C-alpha cells in the first residue's frame, strides 16, 4: 500500500485511474491527475508547497519531488516522463517533456513543452529551457533541436507507461 499522508489539514488528491506503486510516498498538498503513474520509492512531498502532476504523466522509481517554503511549487504538465532518480524541486515542467534519469531541476526553472533534459543534467534556478530542444550538462545548456521522431515519442512514452501500470493492476 502506498504511503499517503495528510499534512496540516491537506490530503493528497489522487485520481482513481492513477497507479501508485506500493512503496510510493505522497504527502500533503499533492494532486495527481488521470492516467498518471507514480513508481517504486518515488516521494512527492507537498509539505512546504504544492505539487501538481498532469494527466498521463509518469514519475519513475526513486524520483523526489519537493518545493521550497514560501518560494516555489512543483508543477508537472501532461504526458511528462520523469526518469529514475530525478530530483524535481520547485519548478514548472510543461506538457510533453522528458526529464532524463538522475537529472536535477531546481527552483523556479521553467521547462517549456517538448523538451528533453538529458540524464544527469542540472537545470539551475530560474533557467528557462526553450521548447523544441535537447538540453544536457551541468549546468544544462541547449545542445540541438529535437527531431520530429523525438517529438512524437513524448506521447509514445506516456502511452507505454499507461500500459506498464496496467500490468501492475492485474
Q: Would you give an account of this structure?
A:
The chain is mainly beta. It has one domain (3-169): 3 Solenoid (UDP N-Acetylglucosamine Acyltransferase, domain 1), CATH 2.160.10.10. The chain has one helix at 148-169, and strands at 3-5, 13-14, 19-20, 25-32, 37-38, 43-53, 58-59, 64-66, 74-76, 81-82, 87-89, 92-93, 98-99, 104-105, 110-111, 116-117, 122-123, 128-129, 133-136, 141-145. β19 and β20 (141-145) form a beta hairpin. The longest helix has 22 residues, at 148-169. The mean pLDDT is 97.
Question: What descriptors fit this protein?
Answer:
single chain, mainly beta, UDP N-Acetylglucosamine Acyltransferase, domain 1, 8-stranded mixed beta sheet, 38% strand
What is the topology?
Blueprint: E1 3-5, E2 13-14, E3 19-20, E4 25-32, E5 37-38, E6 43-53, E7 58-59, E8 64-66, E9 74-76, E10 81-82, E11 87-89, E12 92-93, E13 98-99, E14 104-105, E15 110-111, E16 116-117, E17 122-123, E18 128-129, E19 133-136, E20 141-145, H1 148-169
Parallel strand pairs: 1-4, 2-4, 3-5, 4-6, 5-7, 6-8, 6-9, 7-10, 8-11, 9-12, 10-13, 11-14, 12-15, 13-16, 14-17, 15-18, 16-19
Antiparallel strand pairs: 19-20
CATH superfamily placement: Hexapeptide repeat proteins
CA-based shape: globular
Fill in the CATH topology.
UDP N-Acetylglucosamine Acyltransferase, domain 1
> How many strands in all?
20
Helix count, DSSP H or I runs of 4 or more residues: 1
Note the run of SSEs as H and E: EEEEEEEEEEEEEEEEEEEEH
Strand content: 35-45%
Give the mean pLDDT.
Answer: 97
